[in-house]
């Protein structure tokens, strides 16, 4: 999300310069390129969010990678998570990723319930399928 904002600000400045240096007939091309890039970036974010939240809240309780490793995502009582909780877990990963040196992920090795920061925020557990 932060990268999208930075790209939008930097990209907007770049394309603004391109508008100033072109005549009115060519002015649409930089705008179209910028618009396509922004729609692509937003589509990627929405696609990732829907994939993770949908898969983790489905009866499989995990993404394809988690299923391959025999892992499931549950709430603190061991029940299947809702789409809303899986959404919260997905966006909480942004906060986890902002902490330097992957500390938000590494802390899973040291907490009592083996939770990463985003799991604590969303009140989730990642368990081995029994």
What does this structure look like?
The protein is mainly α. It has one domain. Helices cover 62% and strands 8% of the residues. The protein has 6 helices and 2 strands; from the N terminus they run αααβαααβ. It has a two-stranded antiparallel ribbon. It is elongated.
Summarize the model shown.
The chain is mainly α and 130 residues long. It contains 6 helices and 2 strands; from the N terminus they run αααβαααβ. The chain has one domain.
Q: Any descriptors?
A:
elongated, mainly alpha, about 130 residues
Q: What's the N-to-C terminus distance?
A: 35 Å
Principal-axis shape: elongated
Describe the biggest sheet? 2 strands, antiparallel
Q: Report the order of strands and helices.
A: HHHEHHHE
Strand content: 5-15%
Question: How much is the radius of gyration in Å?
Answer: 20 Å
Number of domains as seen in the coordinates: 1
Q: What is the number of helical segments per DSSP (H or I, 4+ residues)?
A: 6
Segments where pLDDT lies below 50 for 5+ residues?
Answer: none
Oligomer state of the chains in this structure: single chain
Average predicted local confidence, pLDDT: 88
Derived structural class: mainly alpha
Helix content: 55-70%
Strands, count: 2
């Amino acid at each position: 999300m932060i990268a999208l904002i930075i790209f939008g600000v930097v990209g907007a400045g770049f394309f603004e310069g391109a508008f100033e240096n072109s005549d009115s007939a060519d002015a649409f091309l930089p705008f179209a390129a910028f618009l396509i890039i922004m729609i692509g970036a937003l589509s990627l974010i929405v696609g990732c969010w829907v994939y993770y939240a949908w898969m983790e809240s489905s009866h499989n309780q995990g993404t394809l990678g988690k299923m391959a490793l025999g892992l499931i995502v549950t709430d603190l009582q061991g029940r299947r998570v809702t789409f809303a909780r899986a959404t919260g877990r997905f966006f909480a990963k942004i906060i986890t990723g902002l902490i330097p040196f992957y500390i938000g992920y590494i802390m899973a090795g040291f907490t009592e319930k083996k939770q990463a920061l985003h799991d604590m925020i969303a009140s989730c557990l990642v368990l081995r399928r029994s």
